Amino acid sequence: MSASRADSEPDEQEGRRGVAAIAAALVLVYGAVSRRLTSTVVTAPMLFVAAGLVLGDGGLGILDLGLDEEGVRILAEATLVLVLFVDAIEIELPRLVDEVQLPARMLTIGLLGTVALGTLAGLAVFDLELWEAALLAAILAPTDAALGQAVITNHDVPVRIRETLSVESG
């Protein structure tokens, strides 16, 4: 290992610790205010994107992740794991087992029907091969948990509908 690389490793580790500390602080701040935010249109992804804009290169410039493609992939996967985990822990499993018909219909008829119609739409609108249109439809068909958050957390929506949407989204 060259001397310049060895010298840069402590700086890199220090930078990673700083990013981890900032991320932990943001999560703690969000945890402190999340209950108050449930009655607003502001969601966790909105807050974290805003924090990234303010703290990143476009704002104050104090947060530089310096991620390559692999780092971005790992960050995206970790974010997805957290979103899906939070959704999963909010599902009341006994209630879901008692009312399994609606989620089962959403995951079979609804999801498969959406993929089929999306495939046809992809073929009609874009110049795609069948497999490309099917892949596009399969990617776009499921409900995005973050986008559906307002519905899933709205207590005016019946619990069985909220939980069904939560199951369908991942």
- N-to-C order of helices and strands: HHHHHHHH
Number of separate strands: 0
**What is the alpha-carbon Rg in Å?**
21 Å
Helix content: over 70%
In DSSP terms, counting alpha (H) and pi (I) runs of 4 or more, how many helices?
A: 8
Oligomer: single chain
Strand portion: under 5%
What structural class is derived from the secondary structure elements?
A: mainly alpha
Task: Let me know the average pLDDT.
Answer: 76
Largest beta-sheet details? none
End-to-end Cα distance, whole Å, is: 44 Å
Low-confidence stretches: none
Shape: globular
* Number of separate structural domains: 2
Brief digest:
The chain has helices spanning 3-37, 44-55, 69-89, 93-98, 101-125, 130-140, 149-152, 159-168. With 170 residues, it is an all-alpha fold. Helix 5 crosses helix 6 (130-140).
Break the fold down into its secondary structure elements and pairings.
Elements: H1 3-37, H2 44-55, H3 69-89, H4 93-98, H5 101-125, H6 130-140, H7 149-152, H8 159-168
Helix pairs in contact: 5-6, 5-8
Task: Give a description of the structure.
This protein is mainly α and 170 residues long. It folds into 2 domains: 1-66; 91-170, no CATH class. Helices cover 73% and strands 0% of the residues. It has helices at 3-37, 44-55, 69-89, 93-98, 101-125, 130-140, 149-152, 159-168. The longest helix has 35 residues, at 3-37.
Key attributes of the depicted protein:
2 domains; mainly alpha; 8 helices; 73% helix; 170 residues
